[in-house]
Amino acid sequence: MEFAELIKTPRADNVVLHRPFHLAVEGTLCLTGHHLIFSSRRQDNAEELWLLHSNIDSIEKRFVGSLGTIVIKCKDLRIIQLDIPGMEECLNIASSIEALSTLDSVTLMYPFFYRPMFEVLEDGWSSFLLEQEFELLSSVTNEWRLSCVNKEFSVCPSYPPVVIVPKSIDDEALRKVALFRYGGRFPVLSYYHKKNGMAMMRSSQPLTGTNGRRCKEDEKLINATLRSGRRGFVIDTRPLTVAQQARAKGGGFEQEVHYPQWRRIHKYIERFHILQESFIKLVEACNDQSHNMDRWLSKLEASNWLTHIKELLTAACLAAQCIDREGASVLVHGSEGTDSTLQVTSLAQIILDPRCRTIRGFEALVVREWLQAGHPFQQRCAQSAYSNSKQKWEAPVFLLFLECVWQIQRQFPCSFEFNEHLLIALFEHAYASQFGTFLGNNESERAKLKLPQKTMSLWSWVNRPEELSRFQNPLYEANSLVIWPSVAPQSLQLWEGVFLRWNRPSRFLQEAEEERINIIKYNKELQAKVNALRRQLAEMETDGEVQEE
Amino acid sequence: MEHIRMPKVENVRLLDRLSSRRAVVGTLYLTATHVIFVENGSETRKETWVLHSQISSIEKQATTATGCPLLIRCKNFQVIHLVIPQERDCHDVYISLIRLARPVKYEELYCFSFNPKLDKEEREQGWKLVDLNEEYNRMGVPNSCWQISDVNRDYGVCDSYPTEVYVPKSATAHIIVGSSKFRSRRRFPALSYYCKGNNASICRSSQPLSGFSARCLEDEQMLQAIRKANPGSDFIYVVDTRPKLNAMANRAAGKGYENEDNYSNIKFQFIGIENIHVMRNSLQKMLEVCELKSPSMSDFLWGLENSGWLKHIKAIMDAGIFIAKAVAEEGVSVLVHCSDGWDRTAQVCSVASLLLDPYYRTMKGFMVLIEKDWVSFGHKFNHRYGNLDGDPKEISPVIDQFIECVWQLMEQFPCAFEFNERFLIHIQHHIYSCQFGNFLCNSQKERRELKIKERTYSLWAHLWKNRADYLNPLYRSDHSQTQGTLHPQIAPCNFLYKFWSGMYNRFEKGLHPRQSVTDYLMAVKEETQQLEEELEVLQERLANLQKSQSGNNKVKSKQQDRSKQFGLYTSNNSLANTPQEYSNDLKSFPSRSPSQGDEDSALILTQDNLKSSDPDLSANSDQESGVEDLSCRSPSGGGCLPSEDSGKDSDEAVFLAG
Description:
The structure holds two protein chains of two kinds. By secondary structure, chain A is an alpha+beta fold. Chain A has three domains: 4-103, PH-domain like, CATH 2.30.29; 130-504, no CATH class; 507-539. Chain A is built from 20 helices and 14 strands. Chain A has helices spanning 3-6, 87-100, 130-138, 171-180, 216-223, 240-246, 272-286, 293-303, 305-324, 340-352, 359-371, 377-380, 397-411, 420-431, 443-449, 451-454, 458-462, 465-471, 496-499, 507-548; strands spanning 11-18, 25-31, 35-40, 48-52, 56-64, 67-74, 79-85, 144-147, 163-166, 188-193, 198-202, 232-236, 262-266, 330-333. In chain A, the strands form three sheets. Chain A has a seven-stranded antiparallel β-sheet, with helices on one face. Chain A is globular, with a radius of gyration of 26 Å. Among the domains of chain B are: 8-102, Roll (PH-domain like), CATH 2.30.29; 132-381 and 485-519, no CATH class. Chain B is of the alpha+beta class. A seven-stranded antiparallel β-sheet of chain B has the order 4-3-2-1-7-6-5, with helices on one face. A five-stranded mixed β-sheet of chain B has the order 10-11-14-12-13. Chain B has 22 helices and 14 strands. Chain B has helices at 87-100, 120-128, 132-139, 173-181, 217-228, 244-251, 276-291, 297-307, 309-330, 344-356, 363-376, 381-385, 398-412, 421-433, 444-450, 452-455, 459-465, 501-504, 517-547, 556-565, 615-619, 648-651, and strands spanning 8-15, 24-30, 34-39, 47-51, 55-60, 68-74, 79-84, 146-149, 165-168, 190-194, 201-205, 236-240, 266-270, 334-337. At the A-B interface, strand 13, helix 8, helix 9 and helix 20 of A face helix 8, helix 9, helix 19 and helix 20 of B. Chain A: One of its GO terms (biological process) is negative regulation of autophagy. Chain A: This is Myotubularin-related protein 9.
């Protein structure tokens, strides 16, 4: 398909761009296959706005006489308004944008066309391989092995080709267990707590059904993570009633009779459309222009967003607590094991593992626990808070995870190597990107699309020294300890960096950030200078002494 | 001492608000000035001190099998939950505290016995730190349009005003006295802030006694004089900070507001800030929310909204923003009043001044601002903050709200203020503590009669002495945010007003960020300063060396040691804590036995935290925020002070039925 067919009016002059906290600018609007480009012709203050069509969540048009106005609401929550003279131009542009922002074929997406302007120093597609992860693991324990049972994605379509499982369980057993777990998602290692040798596993629900089916291999697999005489915890992210109801549809939960060494805890985490509605309501509240303080707080409350944050953090803390404080192994799952399960396992690692609080470690976590673990990004992030489509598979699951990381970061501002901007960038790129990283729903789809060959990895870009410096937290000091966040309502705040990003004045906050960076930069410069001088003096003095002798 | 029925009770349990399992057993002491709880346990002996003047309510609850619970709520938002084994003892403590917390004479207050071991001269110096005459000079008055009036020299015109008042030059004594007779409590219009740049001013007064139709020529002349003192503008704003309905109701009582028809060239404006009773109830409701044991997000947000607290804060800010804008952008003078002109008027004038003048955003300037708009103009500290036993309906968190407005501004303009949050919290603390004489009584007249300056010490000198602890590391006097007027966002801005957990949940350390960016940056800046000094020394040595290569250079050793100091703060800023009660599902599961030497139960803090920010605070009721959380234990288990969190409690995870 030629994009040109969709672009009826490629260019319009005398368009006026309106954005909050900016003066209106007049300029030229151009449409290309993947971008909406606005450039102001003003000599003194030339500026360009490039917007990916895939970033456009919804578009509204209205007319006053022949002056058309298009309001574009983006997936990154920004809202811009374009005044376009000429009814026909305006209609053409609006329909082109609509068509270009809702392309249904993945291979037409921008990542397949994007040619980076930078030199690739490190190919992000091979930066985070599970094999490397396993190597690290092997240096502290030999109880685990890499299994290639899913090499062809035949055992579990949403799992990566290699997974880490207990050494004592062979591939044959894994195949059997896969048949006993929803979507073939048999229990695999998510995290190994070096301090006490406890493991966190994740899976999907067991297919016990109404007649209490059991699978000896499944029991053996998860028991293999237990120390003799110790018990483990199953953290089920569904309430008990839902787990019980799931049996009627062939699903279920681990019953005490068959898993006597495991104690089940139901910690409910909200799912799918409930989350999406919450997201939509929150963004609505943040965009509310009224002056009424009460309305703001009740809307914030009614959105339930912070409730979801609190519940999610609580579940993650609980998992971490079981591992670190109770010295118990943990298995986490909900129904499919691709959403709330991953939220819990990845956040627990942020709390437990100092490595996940470094830039590199956090990237590895996102790759391992989200991308390779088969979180269906393409489905979940198809639309953002402004869409009217209300598809049941759309949900801000990943955004909730990012926000929880931000909440922990706020409470431990010196313990993270990265800053808020990395989290915001991941949010943006999960919804619309020039990189192929978040395309597809799992590794199998990515392999079929040949993403590593045909697209650029987000990590190739993020990990360039120029970009990295933007994501570094100047206050970072490695903290080797477990960090326990507070989940009290007083301790949780709205993530302004995402939700108020476009409708609050950010200048003063940016200045504060620059100030923080400068204070530390200046200190480091001085330290370097003093050290250099000391060395120089020491050399001169020894030289002097030698001469004296 | 005659009020203390029970000077000491043993085996008292102090409950942790968040987790009743974390109760500690100790001994309770009642002294003439403090309630002191000393933990048993040989190593720590942690002490909690509460000044009697901080106690806002004492509640004796029904006796249970474990003893008799006693709940002490403090004005600095600390809540102390004790369980006393014997009902009789509890009753005695209760009766004693009721009396001790309600002194009837000023002489009973702590400031008259507090002795920071300063000599007379130091004390006098302390009181001279803030000088209002100097401040009016700094603003640029007296000048050709404004003069100091001695009409109130013996408090003859208005007993709640200061003796020295600035008024327009054209306002004669006759006009002032005439105007004062037409104003509630004779609080006539007087200068609060003068803007040197454009001659616009902020004046303050009480409401006019206009009733439905009364007029007063002198009062009209007075407002005329204020207008004339600003040649650049042909009108003034009269801002009534009350809701219109309240102001109208006052007319029936012979009070009310200015009729635009009677005053030439005024623009009248209502800005609805609720009265002290509404504010008192609002705070009460918000504190109930803060006290909830484990609230859901909805409980909390709903309760916060229902309290209306942030709405009131925003109303005060809006009024301040309106006035600052009138003065700075329109160059128009403003007369502000409410009913008596000592609560809402003080709030609004000081918020406007703070927005207008960067000086008030410095530490010294902020002290001056409180002294000017609150202390000197007769804000009724004693009544509002219940220092002496009095009418509970007079109590209201008026200055607390102003302090919160400042905090809200600090959140929006992080580089604009020389001081940090701790400075605000400590000022709030001392408004209630009665440890210093500054905020005693209801007016300057009363303070002079009590000879406060001869008999007590000044808070300002005390804070100034410890100013290093109150600095905002992001403040630079040459930064753009420290220049000129601050312009807070007006709309949409609801989301800019946030709950201040640092104040209202101040003693719930577990709720706050575990690492302080402010403290970290201050430590870095301190190190930077040392480095600058060393750099200078090194450069000098280098120059000397180069000059006389053959000369004797034996100054080496000393500098080398310095290097060890650097990096003190590095790798010490990590801090771990103990988990909260994330679930009640674990209760019947055997908990792991307490392990020893658990690495991450250690509590580590930046080195600079160790120097307690305010020795007096930590020695008194501020024990919790002072010494306790600043103590540290290195991960290796050696050295330093033990702390609550690193104590035996924390090694075992606490799982408890909620």
